[in-house]
Design goal:
Helices cover 20% and strands 31% of the residues. By secondary structure, it is of the alpha+beta class. Strand 3 and strand 4 form a beta hairpin.
């Protein structure tokens, strides 16, 4: 992907992204490790070395406050999740960014489910010589499919994301005794593992995840059905006036206050529906 730095990755021992996910270092195929070529650095240090995340060129307009949480979303790299936002959301940036708006009920920790967002792609470019202003309106529609072979109705204590996390945690703990450190799971692997001593099913699962993410695909686990509750966000670009070109490029998101419900359950407020808004740095 755009943030992957090949030369820096090679220096710490991982030639390709898929090999980083697998913990497979250059010329060391008999081990599984996320400790670098010399086994002297943590995965967080490896990640920061390769992706070199920089959040300093990203901020909000003073009249449109929000908070953002730095997030690691592979294979994209350094992203932020926007929370506690007002309407409209006005972002100021001095780098090219792409906004994604995802459906929390279909989302997982791996990659980004782009199926919920339809319409105009939400991007803004920046160069020192040419800032630009873009605006987009977002209209949300929520609906619920009938439960069956294709989807399940999850309760308040378990959702689609948690189902996948539980499955991965159980299988990696059984096969590795720890979990790959690039996942949002407890008991992360901090030691180098002998590949032949690990469980075959866990190795196959890791290979599946690595290859799927490397191709930009979506992770599917047969034991976890998708949620029947779905959200569609319709994006439409609008003419936008530049506030201050000297500050950088400007992106405005206006959340429309009309939500069309065609679901059986109506216990979701507008801001509960639109939960995951974030941006990818290029």
């Amino acid at each position: 992907m755009e943030q992957w730095n090949y030369s820096r990755a090679l220096n710490v021992g991982y030639q390709w992204e898929s090999l980083l996910y697998k913990g497979k270092r250059t010329n060391m195929s008999d081990t599984v490790s996320w400790k670098g070529l010399q086994e002297n650095i943590s995965f967080d240090e490896i990640y920061n070395t390769i992706y070199n995340p920089d959040y300093s060129k990203f901020e909000h307009w003073p009249d449109s406050p929000f908070d953002f949480i730095p997030s690691r979303i592979l294979p994209y790299g350094a992203c932020v999740k926007i929370v506690n936002y007002s309407n409209p959301i006005v972002l100021i940036t001095k780098q090219r960014i792409k906004i994604f708006v995802t459906d929390r009920f279909q989302n997982t920790e791996f990659g980004i489910n782009n199926e919920a967002l339809v319409g105009d792609p939400i991007t803004v470019d920046y160069s020192p010589d040419a800032s630009e202003a873009k605006g987009f309106s977002l209209e949300i529609e929520q609906y619920e499919e009938m439960e069956g072979e294709e989807c399940a109705k999850y309760g308040s204590y378990l959702d689609y994301r948690q189902c996948i996390q539980n499955y991965l945690y159980e299988n990696f703990m059984k096969g590795f005794g720890c979990t790959p450190p690039w996942m949002y799971l407890p008991n992360k692997c901090v030691q180098t593992l002998d590949r032949n001593s690990t469980g075959k099913s866990a190795r196959e699962l890791l290979n599946y995840l690595a290859l799927t993410l490397n191709k930009g695909g979506e992770v599917h686990i047969d034991e976890c059905k998708r949620s029947c509750l779905r959200t569609t966000i319709k994006s439409k670009q609008q003419i936008q006036k530049m506030i201050n070109p000297a500050q950088g490029s400007q992106l405005t998101l206006t959340l429309k206050d009309r939500v069309v419900y065609t679901a059986e359950r109506l216990s979701y407020s507008f801001f509960d529906v639109l939960v995951d808004i974030g941006t990818i740095f290029y």
